[in-house]
Amino acid sequence: MPVSDQTATSGLAKDGEFQRAFAENELDVRMQTGKLACLLVLVLMPVGTVADAMVYPEYLGTFFVYRVLSVLFIGVVLLLHYTKFGQKHFRYLQLFIVYIPAFFMTLIIWQTQKPESPYYAALNLILLAISAVGHWPLFETVLSVVGVILMYLVCAFAHFISSGASEPHPTFANNVYFLVLTGIIVIAGNVMYNRLAFREFELRFELDRNRKQLAEALVQLEETNKRLIDLDRVKNRFFANISHELRTPLTLLLAPLETLLHDRQRPFDGQTREWLGTMYSNGLRLLRLINDLLELVRIQAGKLELVREPVALSEFLGGLASEVKKLSDDKHVRLRTSVAEDASSVLADRNKLEKIVLNLLFNAIKFTPAGGEVELRAARDADQLVLSVRDTGMGIPSDKVPFLFQRFWQADVSAHRKYQGAGIGLALVRELAEAQGGSVKVDSVVGRGTTFLVRLPFLQAEGGSAEKTRAVGKEEQAAETAPDQTAAWLSQLYRRAELFPSIPSVQESVKPVESTISGARPKVLIADDEPDMLRFLRSQLVGEYDVLEATDGEQAVAKATQFLPDILLCDIMMPEKDGLEVCRELRQRTATQSIPILLITARADEETKLAALAAGASDFLSKPFSTSEFNVRLRNLVRGYRFQRSLARQNQALEQTIEQLKETELQLIASEKMASLGRLSAGIMHEMNNPLNFIKTGLFVLRQKEEALTTGQRAEYVETVRDLEEGVDRLQAIISDLRKFAHPHPGQDESVELESLVTSALRFMSHELKDGARVQVQLKSGHVVTGNRNKLLQVLINLLQNALYSIRKKDYANGEGTIHITSSASGTFDQLVVRDNGIGVSRE
Predict the structure, then answer these.
(1) DSSP label at 513?
(2) For the whole model, what pTM was predicted?
(3) Is 229 a residue whose pLDDT tops 90?
C-alpha cells in the first residue's frame, strides 16, 4: 500500500522516515497475507473435487487436473514469497494468487459449456477473498476484480459464439450482475479498510515516535539533571572556596585601614582620612556580602552548624534595635520593639537569629519613607517563637510575593532601579529559618506596608549553661571559638560587617541645590547614586574643575540643562532614569546635544558598550578604572568640547561680519544710486531752468504787446499768455520738488571722526584697492570735523576712485601705486588730503 494510494493523507505522508516505516510495514503485512492466501488456495482447490463429484461427475478427472495445476502454480507463487525477487515484486506477484485460481475456475466453467454454471460462485469467493484476506490497495484491487470479471465474460462470449445462441441465458446476466456488484463491494471495502489501516498505522507511528522521543528526552533530562547536580556541587564548592579566599585578602585590607583610621598620631589631612573611611566602609560592605554568600553555601551543602544557647530576647532585640537606630534616625523612620512576657527567654542560635532580625530590619528601613514606622515584635504561639517585623513602607505587589525569598531575585532588575541589592538577604532569612525547623511568611499591601513573620521552634531555656546541638556537618568556625586575640578581632570585624547597613545615608544622597557657577575653569557634572563614588570622583576633579553633582538620572538631565557643563560623568545604573535614557534625552535637546558624556559602569560586556554608544555617549569607562586613564579621557573630552565651542563662536562671528558687509554693500549701492540720481537730477534741473527762463522772458515781452491789440483780439490773447505762464510755473514747481527729493537734508551736519570715515571708505573700496594700490593713512589723532557724513563719505569715495583710476593708467618703472590720506587743521579749516602717484592731470 504505497502512501500515495491512501486517500486519508496527513502531514506525515511527506516525512521520509514515515514513508520508510510504512513501506516496511506494508511489505511485512503483504507477505503474511500473500502466504495465507496461497495456503487457502492450496487447501480449498483440492477440496473442491468433492463438489465436482456431486455436480459434474463426468468431468471429475478433467477438473481434478485443473485443480492440481492450480495448486502447482500457487505453490510456485508461495515459494517466491520467500525469495528476494518475490519480496521486491510482491505487488505484481500477488496478483497471480487471484488470476491463477480464477483462470482454472473459468476453464472449468468453459468445460461445462454453460456460462450459467453454478461454479461462477467460485469467482465470487475469489473476489471476497481479496477483501477478506488480501486488503490490497485500490489499484491492485481494481486490477484483480476487473481481471476476474473479464475472464468470465471472455468464457461466456466464447461459448455464445461456439454454440450459435441468439441471446445469452438469463442466468448469465444474473451472474454478471452479482460478479460486478461483488467487485464494487470488494473495492469499496478495501478502500475503507486501507484508510482505517493507514490511519491506525499513522497513529501507531506517531505514538512510537513520541515514546521514543520521550524516552530520549527522559535520558537527556536525567543526564542534564546529573550535570546540574554536579554543576551545583561545583558551584557551591567554588562559592565556598572563593568566599574563604576573598575573606583573607579582604581582612588584610581592612586591618591596616582600621589601624590607620584609629591612629591619631599620623597627621592625615581631611581628604586622605575621607578616602580611608570610604575604603573601610566599602570593605565592610563587601565582607558582609561574602559572609552571606558563604552562609548560603553552607546551608545548601548541609554543613550549617547550629549552636543553641539561652537568649534573653528583650536585651537581644533591644541591642539589635539600638545598632540600627542611627540608620532609622537618618531616614526619619520610627523604630519600636516589643517582647511578650512569655517569650522573654528562649534557647536559640544567637548568630543565626541575629542575621534573620538584622536582614529584616535593614530591608524594612530601606523601603520605608521618611515619617514611617518599623516595629519589631517577639511573642510565643504555643510551641513556636513568632518574630514579626512590620513597616509602613511602599508594600509588595501580590504577583511578586511568591518570588520574594528566591536567591538573587530582585523586584526591579532594570538599569534605573532605585534600591540596590544582590537579592541574598531574604533568601538567607528563609534558609536560616528553615534550617532551624521554622518558616517565613510575608503579608503585604501595596501602599500600606509589609509584615514579615518568622516562626521558629520555641525551646525553653533551662539554667544558664549553653546547650550546643550540631546539625549535619563538622566545619569549625575558628573565628568564633579560638581564644587568641586575632580570632577575637576577626569575630568583632565580622560582627561590624553584619551591622553595616549597606544603605546610603539620606544626607549623602540628597545634594544641595547649586547656584550659578561662573569662572574660567571647566564645569563637570557627576551623576551617580553611590555617595562614595560621588565623593571619590569629586576629590579627583575638584582642583581642576568646577564640580556639580546629581544622585539620579532626573537630576542629571535637569542640571545639565540648567548649567550646560563642559562634560557629564554618568553611571549607567541609576534610579529614575538610567544613563542610557539620560544620553538619549540630552542628545534630543538643542542646548545639550553637543555636551560630551562619559558613561561609567561595572558592566563591561560588548552589548552594553554598543548600547551606550548608540544612545549618544561620547566615551565609555568600565569599573574598576585607572585614575590616570580617567583624567586623560576627561581632559581630552573637555579640551575637544571647548575647542568645538570656540570654533562655533568664531564661525558665528564670521557669519555676522559677512552679513554686516552684505548690508553695508547694499547701503553703498543704494547711496551710489541716490548720488547718481542726484547728479542726474541736478543736470536735468540745470538744463531745464535755462529754457524756462528764456520762456518766461519771452512771455514778459508778449505781455508788453497786449496794449497794441484791438479790443476783440485782446481777451483771447491775454487768456493764451496766462495759460502759458501757468504751465511754466507748474514746470518750475516740479523741478523744485525734484531738487528736494534728490537732496532731502542739504543742511544737516554732525560731528564726524575722520578715522571712522576713512575706515568706512576703505572698507567700501576694499575689493577695488586689493590688487590696485597701496594705501597709507596718516590722520591727526582724534580729528573730528563737522559736516554731512554721507556726503563726506561720498566725496572721499569719489576721490579714492579718481586716485585709483590715475594709478591704474600709469606704468611704473620702479615702486608701486600708492595713495596717501592725511588730515590737518589750521585755524577754522580742516583739511583731508587724498594724494596719489598716478599719471596726474595736465595743467590746462
Answers:
(1) P
(2) 0.45
(3) no
